[in-house]
Amino acid sequence: MGSLVAIRGLHKAYHMGDETVHALDGVDLDFDRGEYIAILGPSGSGKSTLMHILGFMDQPTSGSIIFEGEEVSSLGADRRAWYRSNRVGFVFQSFNLLPRLTVLENVALPLLYREDSDREANEAAAKHALERVGMLHRLEHRPSQLSGGERQRVAIARAIVGKPSIVFADEPTGNLDVKNVDRILDLLGSLLAEGITVIVVTHDLGVAARARRIITMRAGKVQEDRRQ
C-alpha cells in the first residue's frame, strides 16, 4: 500500500551521570501501510524507545524520520501533539483507561483534543469504534466493571477512534488469559484491511508469530528483520 514511515540513522542517547547510554544506535527501517509488525527484544534493546519516538512521545538525538512524506524527527511539542492526536493510536498492557469515565467517554476522549472536536460527532465515532470491537453493549459501564479482555477491547476502540495511520500495541496481551489473547490479536489483525499499520512491541514469541514481519532488536540496533 506504499510507504508510511522511513527511518534513517536513528540515534537516541541518554546521559546518566558520566555515562552515555545509546538506546538507539543507528536504526534504519521502513514501514508500509497495512503492515503487521512485531518488534522483539529483551529489556534495554531499544524497542520501547523506538515506539516512543515513532509515537511522537519522544525525539531522537539524531537521524531522520519521514512520516507520510514529512520530516518529523525534530518537530516542536505542539506539532508532535497533533500527530499523537490525529495519526497514532496506542494500546497498552495496563489498558490505561480512566476509572471514573464510562466506556463511551474513555473511547471518545482522544477526540476532545482535536481542533474540530464536536460532542455528537465524537460520540458517534466512539460508538462505531466500540461496535467494531464488540463492546457496544457496555457503553455506560466503568472499566472496573469489565473483564481484562473487555478492557483491552475498549482500549483498542480508543486507539482506532481517530482513524490513525499507525497503531502501537505495547505488550497488549500481557494481562490476558489465553482465550482473550487470540481475540485481541485477531482484532489487531483486522485493522490491516483499512490500511492501518499495526506494530506490536512484545517479549512473547507466540504473539510475534501472528505478525507478518518480525524485527528483533538488541543493544539499540536491528539484529534481524524478517518477513513471514
Short recap of the structure:
This protein is 30% helix and 31% strand.
What report would you give on this structure?
The chain has a single domain (32-59, 76-227), classed as Rossmann fold (3-Layer(aba) Sandwich), CATH 3.40.50. The two termini are 18 Å apart. It has 228 residues and is of the alpha/beta class. Helix content is 30%, strand content 31%. The relative contact order is 0.20. Helix 5 (148-160) runs parallel beside helix 6 (178-190).
CATH class: Alpha Beta
Looking at CATH, the homologous superfamily is P-loop containing nucleotide triphosphate hydrolases
The CATH architecture can be given as: 3-Layer(aba) Sandwich
Per DSSP, the total helix count is 7
Integer count of domains: 1
Query: What is the strand content?
Result: 25-35%
Write the element-wise H/E pattern from the N-terminal end onward: EEEHEEHEHHHEHEHEE
Main sheet makeup = 6 strands, mixed
Shape: globular
What name is given to the CATH topology?
Answer: Rossmann fold
Please tally the β strands and state the result: 10
Average pLDDT, rounded to a whole number, is 92
Give unreliable regions as ranges. Answer: none
The rounded distance between the terminal residues' Cα atoms is 18 Å
Structural class: alpha/beta
Alpha-carbon Rg, integer: 17 Å
Name the helicity range: 25-40%
| Spatial strand arrangement across the major sheet | 6-7-8-3-9-10
